[in-house]
Amino acid sequence: MNRGQRFVLMVMALMIGVTFNPWVYGQMQAQEKPAFSPDAFGDLEERVHSLEEYAQRLSDGLEYQIRFMGNKTIRLSIISKNYQAIATNSGTFLVAVDDLQHTVNGYTMQVRIGNISAADFGGFKIVLRMGNLWDPKSSLTYEDWRNSLKEFEFNFQGKLSASTWTPVEIILGSIPKELLAYIEMEMTVNSVELRGP
Questions:
Q1: Confidence at residue 138, expressed as pLDDT on a 0 to 100 scale
Q2: Which of 177, 150, 153, 164 is nearest to 121 (CA)?
Q3: Whose CA is closest to 191, among 143, 125, 107?
Q4: Hey, which of 6, 96, 106, 123 would disulfide with 190, CB 3.0 to 4.6 Å?
Q5: 81 and 94 in contact (C-beta within 8 Å)?
């Protein structure tokens, strides 16, 4: 047996001795196991909580966008006078805000409703929900924000004539100015009046 072979046998014997020595093996196992750190556990909890919050914001934001996709609910702008399409139980109408006035009796909003169909409609209801803007990055959930909105219902007995803009005055009354930051609208029509031949 040459010198190289003896060296290999010595290394193998040393390895076998370490493996089967209970004290040495136990020390090796103890070193392999990472020590439990309360700080690491707390950091993991914080990461999980952040991920849960992020997932909730994504869900809330998606629900917020889906709500307006069908145009059953529209957001009114008191600055822009551009019209928007709103879907109702009797078809699509156009809505534009002409003016918002503040008097001693409170706020009054002037809007126009455009009937783009060939039929006349009698009577309609407007529902407004008003409040602060929702910030997806805030601690306020989408559901809590929705619950914070103030709802106002207005019934009108007038006629929405075919192919015509109809001016409508909505008396908001003495409401806090903060409610004007966000205004959404829904609309339903009471009856349709078809013209004869």
A1: 82
A2: 164
A3: 125
A4: 123
A5: no
Structure confidence at residue 60 (pLDDT): 54
**Residue where one domain finishes, among candidates 40, 68, 96:** 68
pLDDT mean by block of 10 residues, the chain; 197 residues = 51 48 50 57 68 59 56 90 93 96 93 95 96 86 90 94 96 94 95 78
Q: Please give the angle made by the CA atoms of 10, 14 and 20, to the nearest 5 degrees.
A: 145
Rounded CA-CA distance 163/79 in Å is 25
Q: Which domain holds residue 135?
A: 71-193
> In this structure, are 35 and 127 located in the same domain?
no
Residues 58 and 102 both lie in one domain:
no
Q: Are residues 15 and 76 in the same domain?
A: no
Q: What is the pLDDT of residue 97?
A: 96
Specify the residue for token string 């059953």.
72
Residues 142 and 134: beta-carbon distance below 8 Å: yes
In this structure, the answer to whether residues 111 and 181 fall within a common structural domain is yes
